[in-house]
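#help-structures

NK: newbie question. if I give both the sequence and a SMILES, will the prediction place the ligand too? trying with zinc ion
OV: yes, paste both and it writes out the complex. here, I ran yours:
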Amino acid sequence: MPVKNMIQPNIDMVRYYACGYCVNHMGFIVKNPKEKKRAFPAGVYLLHHVKYGYILFDTGYSERNYKCGWKGMLYRLLNPTHITKKETLAEQLRKDGIAAKDIRYIILSHLHPDHIGGLKDFPNAKLVCSMDCFKQYKRGRLFDLIFTDLLPDDFEKRLYRVRKYDSKYAFFDGYDLFRDGSVILTDISGHSAGQMGAYLWEYRIFLGADAAWGLEFLGRAEEMSKPARLVQYDFRAYQKTMETIRKMMDARVSVYLSHEKNVKKDLIHE
Ligand SMILES: [Zn+2]
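OV: that's the protein plus ligand as structure tokens.
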């Protein structure tokens, strides 16, 4: 169970949604895998802040992931993807009585297709990503896997770029988004340039995005296959991030990654 730090927290809901998934051969990821294939759900976390309303951490896949031209086809060839309309984030939220227009902020851990697929469904949200992530998007290299087809036309206009990390409360260098300790964005570069995690200090919960593809991979960087190392933006930084996450877990922080299996829906509820 997460440990509460305060009697009246600012965040009163943390909820998990799986929005489609991809399937990978484990042999591509680790040497001598125990299982042949693994499904990787595209996980999204919904937060509710008593003052700032609904906040998303990423947006998962949507049917738009099937309409990204030849780049999208290549991605799906290497990374078979499954998503139906029913599984999209907007649709699952609607079923839970939350309108897309009521999402006020979207934290983008990074801009890979399984994290921004649903982005166009939330026109009123302010978007947040790191400056390094923004620069990577601007460079527009194919290998960085940022499909601009998935970004709304006003992406840059709505985007707040985190420039400096000045909070020391999150194991990593952090940026205290609302200046109340509720959501501390952290620099977990490695997997992509400027990837961000979110430390929910009030509950000692850490949303770790793709810092690893699953908790079972933590501490096993040495076993990772060559292709799996090569797809990381900076493998050394990736390893360092994984080590820090292990330390967090030793300090009783509950870590939730984006592609974890069997995450329960309500992590924190009113
Ligand atoms: Zn990624």
